[in-house]
Amino acid sequence: MIYGVSTGTLDDGIAKAFEQGTPLVTKRIQSLHWLQDNGFRTFGMLCPSLPIPGGDYTQMANEMASAIRADRCEHTWAEVINVRGDSMTRTVAALNAAGFHSHANELAHVSGDAEAWEQYSRDTFEAHVPNYAPNKLRFLQYVTARTKTFWQGREKDGAILL
């Protein structure tokens, strides 16, 4: 048995704004640490990762790896936010309603622009890679005919093409 929890942000307020019915991020991380401290096998699940206003993906990735104690996780799965139905519209609205306007604006921008979406995905992936030993990162990425070659070249670093 291997245990893990998902979180794409370390900010309880941001997560609470759009993740309905989930425990606070701080509680999820606390439970992961308890499992690790008590000898249980664990994994990290870094999702859904929102686009970052100002774009400091390296800081985000470093903080996430530290928070989940990546060196104590057998693997870490990660991905950007999934597009499902009207999920982007609902997430943007939820972020705005909670006062996270810059996050809402950034998500609205990338979700409406294929080039910006691809750059957000690449920036998120490339920021995570240095934090993990070989074969520890599993970054789930939906590809298109246009983006497939780029992502195939990153499979050795943990990209999993969907």
For the structure shown, list the relevant keywords.
5 strands, alpha/beta, 162 residues
Task: Explain the overall architecture.
There is one protein chain. The chain has one domain. The longest helix has 15 residues. The protein is α/β, with parallel strands linked by helices and 162 residues long. 45% of the residues lie in helices and 15% in strands.
Put the structure in a nutshell:
This protein has one domain (3-161). The chain is built from 7 helices and 5 strands, in the order E-H-H-E-H-E-H-H-H-E-H-E. It has helices at 12-18, 25-37, 57-67, 87-97, 101-111, 114-128, 148-152, and strands at residues 3-6, 42-49, 76-80, 137-141, 159-161.
| Structural class computed from helices and strand pairing | alpha/beta
As for the number of domains, it is 1
DSSP, total strands:
5
Write down the Rg. 15 Å
Q: In DSSP terms, counting alpha (H) and pi (I) runs of 4 or more, how many helices?
A: 7
Strand/helix succession: EHHEHEHHHEHE
